[in-house]
Each structure stands twice: as structure tokens, then as C-alpha cells.
Amino acid sequence: MAASGVWPMKEELITDALLREFLLGKLADEERERIESLFLTDSQTRERVDVVEQDLIEDYLEDGLTADDRGRFLSRYAQTDEQQRQLRITKSIRDWAATEARAPQTAGASVSVWNRLRTLLLKPVFVVPVAALILIAIVLAIVWLNSRIEQRKHLAIEQQLAQLNSPISLREVPSAMTSIELRPVTVRSVEPPPALSSRAGIQSVELRLPWVQQQRYSKYQAEVRRVGDNESYKIPNLQADSDGRNVIRMRLPTSFLNRGQYQIYLSGVANDGSLSSPEEYSFLVSN
Q1: Low-confidence ranges of the chain (pLDDT < 50)
Q2: pLDDT tens string 68-102
Q3: Of 53, 90, 134, 202, which is least surrounded by CB within 10 A?
């Protein structure tokens, strides 16, 4: 890696500022797809994204983001109740550490947090409360670490889905792929959702989503979730086929799908970035 937070990406340079815009969803499609490709294939890039992501979270917790960046951050890192809980835990740990760092020092000597804790431990009256505090701190640290792992896993899955649905990837027709057309729930009425069954050798599924609303858009965004799960995954920058039917194609890897019912919320993206009211689609995955 080059100095000053800059390293080569093919013939161009990636800076920390560029990665920050990537994480906030500010990049143009071509640049975003290049970084996504590197994120999936290069461990150094993944590590660098993690570092910049952590800095971004720190800035959010310290109220150091602009109003626009804060809105973008919340739309990506506080979508679910679980993500919101993880942010609250991280903030609580930071606030506790900041309070300890600001604690007054005794005259003539610098007393560390550990020294104060050790002094308390020597007093029997404090043994149980301090032990409980230590246990709580350990639990919070474990929860925070697990939340970071889950955040990275979530980001990696979204990057994989974005890469699979990039215009370049959609132009290819893999042999190990099956396809199915879904009708919006409002059109399908009381009919049961179509079912997909796993077959040997199938690596991906292409879902064809007819857009029945009168308004047309140059780009669409899909949100996919399994019924009963808290996690949802967004796939941006989808486009309708140019055959006049206005069908949006979306691909999912079979490794992403587990047994159960899935919901897809498809929205049009206006020129100002706002989303239209979504169309809902659903399908079942069986063994």
C-alpha cells in the first residue's frame, strides 16, 4: 500500500476519501463496481475498507458527519433493530471509556483506570459489585465484537449481490442458472407464491420482476429478506430490460437462499435519489 492512505487500483488510485464515499453510497456505478470487485477478491482491500468503515462509525458516534452523510450512514448502518442495537452498544462502550479518561487524577500522582479498579478490588465490600461490572464489560465487549463480525458479513453479502447484479454480470448467461418470473403480490391476489427447489449444479437464480406501475425509472432498488429474519439486503442500480415489457432482472446465488418464504420490495429510484412506493414480490424455497 502506498503512503497517505492511497494505494493503486489498476490504473487509478483509491483514497480513504473515495472509500468513504463508497461506504456512503456516493460513487458512480463504474467506480463502485470496481471497488466491489476488489473487495470480493483482494484481502488487502477488505482490510482497508474495514479501517475506513470503523473511522466512519467513529465520526457518526462523535456527531462528526454532515446532515447528508448522517442520513446516508443511517440508511446503511441502522436499517434494522439489530444494527441500531449494535450502534447503541458501541456508543455506550465509547462513553464509558471517555468518562474514565476524564476522571480526576489524585494530587502528585497519575492514577490509571486499572489502579483505581485494583484498589476497589482489594476492598471486600466492593468485590461483588466490581465483579459484576467486569462481567458486564466482558459481555459488552463480546457482543460488540460479534456485532462487528455480523456487520462485515452483512456488507460482504450486499457487495456480492451488487456484483452479481451489475450490468456486466447480467449480460452473461451462466449455464448453472435457473430463472423464474414473479408477479407482484397485488396482481397475484390470493394465489400462493411460486416455489423454487434446489437442484444439483444450480449456482444462481434469476428472478424476473415485472414493474406494473405507470411511472418508469432508469434505475431500481430491491430489498430482499427472508420472512422471520431480521436481516434484509439491498441491491441498488437495477435496470429494466429494453424489450418494452419493463421487467427488472435480479439474480441471487443459491448459497444465499435457505428454506422458507422470501419477500422482495422493488422501488423506482427518482433522479433526486428518492424511492417510489415499492412493489412486493414473494417466493418460496423448498429443499
Answers
A1: 1-12, 106-110, 120-123, 125-128
A2: 888 888 888 777 777 777 777 667 666 665 565 55
A3: 134
Residues 6+ apart with CB under 8 A from 221: 234, 235, 236, 237, 238, 266, 267, 269, 275
Give the whole-angstrom CA distance, residue 233 versus residue 250.
13
Contact 278, 265 (CB under 8 A): yes
HSE, CB side, 13 Å, CA atoms: give it for residue 10: 5
Burial of 3-18, coded b for 16+ CB within 10 Å and e otherwise, reads eeeeeebeeeebeeeb
Type of residue found at 282? S
pLDDT digits (tens, 9 = 90+) for 163-186: 889 888 888 888 889 889 998 887
Distance CA 146, CA 181 (A): 37
Beta bridge partners of 205: 178, 252
Separation of alpha carbons 238 and 249, rounded Å: 8
Determine the Cα–Cα distance for residues 174 and 179; give it in Å rounded to an integer.
11
